[in-house]
């Protein structure tokens, strides 16, 4: 018998949806709530490394993911020169195992819809436009009041509600994300024939200029700069700013720039990062995913680490017959060091770029790839 009979999951992102799938399909009663009115309808792309794909296969959605996304096994490094010269083509480690690609890009809202749909089919009750307002421990359970004034009692509450986690604050965990000093322009557009994998350009007016194919006809492209307050720009001004910054990059970037015409497809976000050092639970409330740790996207491991959190948490809850201190100790031992190392490596890449220091980027990437190749 699982350690829990009923669970509330706060947040319908990758960590929350994955936890809901794994628990519900084994008979645990799962309520998943999200304050958004619906599954994400807009967004850009997401890069999923092999260790993320390994968990997505565990969730039973790999066939859908493979059909909707764009898989590849190499990484290109290009120069910020007038030709966009290819400097190196690196074969990526298949961190999810030899039968999964090294990397897959896809449209982020499509990933969200697949996971939420799978959670519903597994038996989870999914409610959008709903949020908890209070959490009250009651013995070996938590009583939760929602914004519609209803009240429920759960064996466990999982806070998978992102960077600004309400759950984290509600249980008194003081670990807010901190600025890194970089910001990222993102766009989602058509895929030119010249793009069949991720290429990264280091140098020029941006610290990083990159792109990732996300489907047969779509591409996610991004430019990383020193963080600025871009909040006052109109959508049209944001588009013009990204086009101007992209003008320094060539090769496939010339094809991307031709397609950069829709202001609604451009967004800007500042990098932030944190790791909750120590147990991620407070009694029968636990935080996972970006609520527990967040890293700059320089290693494309944010979603992968969130999915690993969900997999390990569900494994322990389904393996044990009750929630004990030993369960939480094992969860901490398996997740905290690994997530911390990934976050710190992502931060290190940012520091090297910000300080214009020639660090061992290939060596750091290889070290993290070998780390995450081992199942969490």
pLDDT under 50 segments (min length 5)?
A: none
Helix content: 25-40%
How do the SSEs run, as a string of H and E?
Answer: EHEEHHEEEEHEEEEEHEEEEHHEEEEHHH
Number of domains: 2
Outline type? globular
Q: What structural category characterises the helix and strand content?
A: alpha+beta
Mean pLDDT: 96
Largest sheet, if any? 8 strands, mixed
* End-to-end CA span: 23 Å
- Return the CATH topology of the largest domain: FAD/NAD(P)-binding domain
Strand ordering within the main sheet: 6-5-14-15-16-13-17-20
Residue fraction in strands? 25-35%
CATH C-level class of the largest domain is Alpha Beta
What's the total helix number?
10
- Tell me which CATH architecture of the largest domain applies here: 3-Layer(bba) Sandwich
User: In angstroms, what is the radius of gyration?
Assistant: 21 Å
Provide the CATH superfamily of the largest domain. Answer: FAD/NAD(P)-binding domain
Write the layout of secondary structure elements.
Blueprint: E1 6-10, H1 14-24, E2 29-34, E3 45-49, H2 50-58, H3 62-68, E4 70-72, E5 74-78, E6 86-91, E7 103-107, H4 108-122, E8 125-128, E9 132-137, E10 142-146, E11 151-154, E12 156-159, H5 166-170, E13 178-190, E14 198-202, E15 208-215, E16 218-226, H6 235-246, H7 252-259, E17 266-275, E18 281-282, E19 285-287, E20 293-294, H8 302-319, H9 325-354, H10 361-373
Parallel strand pairs: 1-2, 1-12, 2-8, 5-14, 12-19
Antiparallel strand pairs: 3-7, 4-7, 5-6, 9-10, 10-11, 13-16, 13-17, 14-15, 15-16, 17-20, 18-19
Helix pairs in contact: 1-4, 1-8, 2-8, 8-9, 9-10
């Amino acid at each position: 018998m699982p350690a829990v009979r009923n669970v509330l999951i706060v947040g319908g992102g990758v960590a929350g949806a994955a936890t809901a799938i794994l628990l519900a399909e084994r008979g645990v009663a799962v309520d998943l709530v999200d304050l958004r009115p619906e599954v994400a309808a807009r967004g850009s792309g997401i890069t999923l490394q092999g260790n993320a794909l390994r968990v997505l296969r565990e969730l039973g959605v790999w066939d859908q993911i493979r059909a909707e996304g764009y898989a590849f096994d190499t990484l290109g490094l290009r120069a910020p020169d007038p030709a966009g010269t290819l400097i190196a083509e690196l074969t990526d480690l298949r961190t999810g195992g030899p039968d999964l690609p090294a990397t897959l890009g896809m449209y982020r809202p499509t990933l969200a819809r697949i996971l939420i749909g799978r959670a519903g089919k597994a038996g989870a009750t999914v409610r959008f436009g709903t949020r908890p307002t209070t959490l009250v421990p009651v013995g070996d359970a938590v009583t939760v009041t929602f914004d519609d004034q209803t009240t429920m009692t759960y064996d466990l509450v999982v806070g998978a509600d992102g960077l600004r986690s309400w759950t984290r604050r509600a249980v008194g965990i003081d670990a807010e994300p901190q600025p890194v000093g970089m910001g990222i322009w993102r766009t989602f557009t058509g895929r030119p024939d010249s793009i069949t994998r991720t290429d990264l350009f280091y140098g020029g007016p941006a610290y990083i200029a990159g792109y990732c194919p996300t489907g047969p006809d779509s591409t996610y492209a991004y430019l990383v700069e020193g963080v600025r307050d871009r909040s006052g720009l109109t959508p049209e001004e944001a588009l013009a700013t990204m086009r101007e910054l992209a003008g320094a990059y060539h090769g496939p970037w010339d094809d991307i720039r031709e397609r950069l015409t829709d202001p609604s497809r451009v967004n800007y976000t500042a990098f932030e990062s944190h790791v909750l050092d120590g147990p991620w639970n407070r009694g029968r409330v636990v935080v996972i995913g970006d609520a527990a740790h967040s890293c700059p996207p320089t290693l494309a491991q944010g979603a992968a680490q969130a999915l690993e959190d969900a997999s390990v948490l569900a494994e322990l809850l389904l393996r044990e017959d009750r929630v004990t201190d030993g369960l939480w100790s094992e969860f901490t031992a398996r997740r905290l060091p690994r997530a911390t190392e990934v976050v710190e490596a992502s931060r290190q890449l940012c520091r090297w770029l910000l300080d214009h220091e020639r660090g061992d980027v290939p060596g750091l990437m290889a070290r993290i790839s070998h780390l995450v190749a081992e199942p969490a």
